[in-house]
Amino acid sequence: MYRTNTCGELNLTNVGNEIVLSGWVHRIRKMGGMTFIDIRDRYGVTQLSFDLEVNEELYTQANKLGREWVIKVEGIVKERSSKNSNIPTGDIEIIANKLTVLNKSKTPPFTIEDDTDGGDDLRMKYRYLDLRRKAVRKNLELRHKMTIETRKYLDHLDFLEVETPTLIGSTPEGARDFIVPSRMNQGEFYALPQSPQLFKQLLMVSGFDRYFQIVKCFRDEDLRADRQPEFTQIDCEMSFVDQNEILNTFEGLTKHLFKTLKGIDIPDFPRMSYADAMKYYGSDKPDTRFDMQLVEMKDLTKGRDFMVFDSAPYVGAICVEGCAAYTRRQLDDLTNFVKRPQVGAKGLIYLRYNEDGSLKSSVDKFYSEEDLKLWAERCNAKPGDLILVMAGETDKTRKQLSDLRLEMASQLNLKDKNDFKCLWVVDFPLLEKDEELNRYFAMHHPFTSPKPEDMHLLDTDPGAVRANAYDMVINGVEVGGGSIRIHDRELQNKVLSVLGFTQERAQEQFGFLMDAFTFGAPPHGGVAFGLDRMVSLFAGLDSIRDCIAFPKNNSGHDVMIDAPSKIDKEQLDELGLSLVKLKE
Amino acid sequence: MYRTNTCGELNLTNVGNEIVLSGWVHRIRKMGGMTFIDIRDRYGVTQLSFDLEVNEELYTQANKLGREWVIKVEGIVKERSSKNSNIPTGDIEIIANKLTVLNKSKTPPFTIEDDTDGGDDLRMKYRYLDLRRKAVRKNLELRHKMTIETRKYLDHLDFLEVETPTLIGSTPEGARDFIVPSRMNQGEFYALPQSPQLFKQLLMVSGFDRYFQIVKCFRDEDLRADRQPEFTQIDCEMSFVDQNEILNTFEGLTKHLFKTLKGIDIPDFPRMSYADAMKYYGSDKPDTRFDMQLVEMKDLTKGRDFMVFDSAPYVGAICVEGCAAYTRRQLDDLTNFVKRPQVGAKGLIYLRYNEDGSLKSSVDKFYSEEDLKLWAERCNAKPGDLILVMAGETDKTRKQLSDLRLEMASQLNLKDKNDFKCLWVVDFPLLEKDEELNRYFAMHHPFTSPKPEDMHLLDTDPGAVRANAYDMVINGVEVGGGSIRIHDRELQNKVLSVLGFTQERAQEQFGFLMDAFTFGAPPHGGVAFGLDRMVSLFAGLDSIRDCIAFPKNNSGHDVMIDAPSKIDKEQLDELGLSLVKLKE
Predict the structure, then answer these.
(1) Tens of pLDDT along B180-217?
(2) A485/chain B closest Cα distance in angstroms
(3) Partner residue opposite A512 with nearest CB, options B42, B549, B560
(4) Between 20 and 30 A from B489 (CA), which of A159, A247, A564, B374?
(5) By residue range, what is the domain housing residue A62?
């Protein structure tokens, strides 16, 4: 037997017990004729004590152990003379009377501590050692608990978890698919799903009523910092519901997760239209932990011969509390920030509302103190505040103001990781236009239902049609989104044709769904949450990578197992494939 | 609002309530001036009644509905005059006062009934309609419940569910991998996992202690009736345990599933050595719902000049209860059965132990009544029993007797689908020899630990080394299996070299695992269950296909979505691949 207890559970009630523990040598401390060893497992750390005077052989044996060796120890639980109140087992120690080495260990390439000395690359190469660190493991424990609680909640609401296939057909629409050559059908390919969208809709046609699945999805995109080629979705769909019932159901799920995993009661989620989100935050995923809403200033700024404002369709501002004393240098830095290519603005106008009530702007040449007073009023500014103004094309400038708003929030430490502000953004546009290609794309996906009251605009002004589509946003992160789906074949045809699909292509790609709609499809809708993002948000992580056990790097490599890699020519032959000459 | 209630929950306590139901038109019955419509959803069926005399317009509207139309009905719950005790809602009906058609339906290509008139191909093409059938849906409901209960049980035991990657590296060892070309790394490939074996072992090295995952796995094999290219495993691993603790833990899980899903108390599982399983059942997955054990007869049959027996290293029999009166024709059929290429025997000897106590065999020429009496005694035969004897090479003949045993059980209806006999088969051989290739292969996989007491045979007689490996067998189906793993680098090297790996190939393929073993790997072991098989066993299905929502056919096709399929040349170009000319 390897253990009677784990390394995290012994306390004063166990004093006198004969116990067996197994685990890793975490720390070794030698003090005179005593050696103390912390033995560690997933559940905690327990101190072992070896006394030269009591048992010299065992003492000598203990002193030969190295960091991360795997040992089994038999001994007796004793109350400690100097207690450690930082750990649950801090009141006791083990007087060892037998020690067995289960496995030796080389010295790890970095320390197994919360603050490790290992760099990112080294940690990923030895991910199995990195995962020994409590700081990393607790993210995966949280992930486990989140899936357990999600399933519990949805199961209680009669949702059925149904596994949909991983080997499906490729659709050129949307992001790029990973493909899988078929050996039994040479020249043909499966694709890995970007989401189970079509299958979950078919399950609604099947009368499954309430479906969910925690499921791997795949997207062959050029990776950014917070993207992985494989990611996990909490995927859900319901029949015979309107948008409101869906929002309430999954707001309930999210509250349940905050309550059970973080002990936090979240109030009812505000619901903000997409139009308002853009107007007041310049973003469809507003971070509402702090104010600094966008204020429209066009009417106050015109007719003073300031061409930059007069020629712009939009002038907007944010009011930054208590920053009137920003130095010239700090303001220059902000101007440089908005001029970075990632933000792309031409410049930044400021207005200081000084503590003494005076007003000082970078456009004093054009605007009188009276004018500026009106600006300050519009922004609800108080003495001591700083107003930052930008102008240009409406959508672009709002986006730039949003970037500036988030930057100011970072500078002012307003992004509290322990504060969670949740909301629904609703009434998304159905379509967005790619001006270059001069065609419309679905903002969510082609199966999203237009709002009945906007249906008449489909022919005349498709860009103005709003959808029954919604996103859940927490602290500026889009954690999930969904829509009421189209369940009528004619309407689906119509929307696909607005999206530029010919009848033939629509039939070829989505024929089985359109056919299914002719056999009694119920009204339905759903939502999908990004599990990785949700966990990283709950855990306060900056990247999703640390809530994934074995993540890939930015070039899609798993450096630990060295994948992807070359394969034998025989394997390619069997698949009827050959490599074309690689680019030089 | 689409509904106040589901179609499965209204009863006499609701009489008088105003309710709204939504669902599918299941059946329409017209009787005089009354029309009765059964409305169906996932939860049940409720009768709607429309009375010509009360509301002619509504009555006319109801009579225009078709099978599988989706409707919403508003009405009042009323006690039925003629009750139907077969369904939970059979005491009531709905007096409709408003009817809305939510979607029409074409006539489905087969009936949506438990006994449908649809053939397999049609059902698979319209799987979304097939899934409307309760008989199919309840298998998926069972699957959902099984995963919920599995997670509940393992979570309570501190197992953590950890997602391992789906895009991993290819290993030529074992079955064929599905591969996924990498676009970002042209000429390189991911593989889809056949199991998360290496990752779960690494998680043990990481100190995760108890891991599980319900996970999709992939195997590119030529498909047999009961194989799918993608399948689901309940995958588990534990540290600091011996074989017994693993068996007890997962025996506990299985008992929990039988208790919660079927209401059945399963007694403790017998543990049978592989050697005994082969000796008494001729199979490593014995069906123990019935006896008919194999009986060794060699010593009783020799020295009577019957060359077939004398030249055979093995003579064995089964005693079939109550079948002494089998006709000549029936016995010929059995002989033909064992001569089929799938069984491959040369012939079959019989001995009737007639009701009158007389003995009659097909080898009376060689054996006296005294001899045959000894045979009957050895077989514990009673008057009325039939003894069937086969001879030949030991392993082959045992396998043939096993086939015959299962055939007799089928003929005698001994395979009761509601009787569940579980056992562990233990002490599997570590290796099996491929006589053609004259090399050893791992019976489970190369990471299985040899039994310490057999370790000394690794060099001298590798085929005789037993492993700490075990299978869970229920009703003759191997539902799961696993082993204690090697956790020592030297031993792993040794076993890989017995398997014919050079140091270089071992390092190339399993280097990261072998390296991990040098950093303090704990003793560990685990098990994996086939979820599809487990569900189909619980559901009493003959194939795993009906417990999978969207299965593939025997050529790996999903005929509903038509996958796999051809892809655009541009997609291949991006991957740096081209198709070689297809075989004519």
Answers:
(1) 999 999 899 999 999 999 999 999 999 999 999 999 99
(2) 14
(3) B560
(4) A564
(5) 12-103
